[in-house]
Amino acid sequence: MNYVWKYKLDHLIFWLITVLFYASLKSHLITSAGLLFFLEDVAVRNILIAAVCYINIYFLFERYFNKGRYLMYGLLLLGLFVIYAGLQHLQDDWLRAYVQTDSGRKNIFYNAYYNISICIFYAGFTLSLELSKKWYQQQLLLHQVQTEKLNTELQFLKAQINPHFLFNSINTIYFQIDRSNTEARESLQKFSELLRYQLYECNEDLIPVEKEISYLESYVDMQRLRKNSHHSILFKTDDSVKGFNIAPLLLIPFVENAFKHLSNHNNVSNIVEVNMSRENGSFLFNVRNSVDENSPNRNEPGIGLKNVKRRLDLLYNDKYQLHINRSPSSFSVELQIQL
């Protein structure tokens, strides 16, 4: 089924049936007007009908009806029907009067009523088919999301150890570390915060973006403790990035990837930049890191990025844009999610 929709074979089959049906009704034109005019009449009529259907489905319905502008949608659709009826009347008039030399042409109002009726039927029928297809695709997508979520939860349960034992162990190790070793104590504390977030705070389908930002910031702070003066690590979030929800653990693979493939220069700065902002109803997330030009895997996105792209497809479908840019000296990710 996905193969059929991917290559629009359902459209091809529909219009093939429509053209053959109309051709059978107009087959008498072959005798009365000739094969050329018969083919011309079949082509013009079906091209006009197809134009009305596709303008309605992909332009008027998407731009006006889906956005609640029902009156404008109705007026424009009516105008489209009138244009179709006028053009089809000219075609019928010309064929009947000048090709078939039939002086008893139908009245323009009769033709308009007939052509608009046909147009309404096809526009409504094709729109119904398209909406039914989208509903079916959404049901499949929902099933995929639920299945993958269930599999993820099962894998997590298999790997999970007693969290109370884990945190008690971390606290024990924390107090066993000498107080003068502040970096080790701080690293363990950051690790505890990251673990607590993954175990307790991201079990919902969507969470406040503020929690996700706090998690990312803790991860970046922990990475800072491991780096030296040759590293420049920037984490910037605009004040506008708040008040909306996001899928949990969606952004961390990009940040992890930046540190995993970070360059290790001694003479120049090794850079990781994380920026988040909100513009025109969209959440913008950018990560950039410097890379070693001679690194053998600098162009490999890694399994983590492939998995997160799969999650984006399932969760946000066509409401996101992901751009991954590579150059000899840097690797960057730009993610835009419509809110």
Topology at a glance:
Blueprint: H1 2-6, H2 9-25, H3 29-32, H4 35-65, H5 70-99, H6 108-159, H7 163-176, H8 182-201, E1 207-208, H9 209-226, E2 231-237, E3 245-246, H10 252-260, E4 270-279, E5 282-290, H11 302-316, E6 320-326, E7 330-338
Parallel strand pairs: 2-4
Antiparallel strand pairs: 1-3, 4-5, 5-7, 6-7
Helix pairs in contact: 2-4, 4-5, 4-6, 5-6, 7-8, 8-9
Backbone CA Rg:
31 Å
Shape descriptor reads: elongated
Q: Got a strand count?
A: 7
Could you name the ranges where pLDDT drops below 50 across 5 or more consecutive residues? 1-5
Which percent range fits the helix content? 55-70%
β-strand amount: 5-15%
Q: Give the domain tally.
A: 2
Ends distance: 30 Å
For the sheet with most strands, the description reads: 5 strands, mixed
Q: Please report the number of helical segments.
A: 11
Please trace the helix and strand order, writing H or E for each element: HHHHHHHHEHEEHEEHEE
- The chain-level mean pLDDT equals 77
Structure class = alpha+beta
**Order of strands across the main sheet:** 2-4-5-7-6
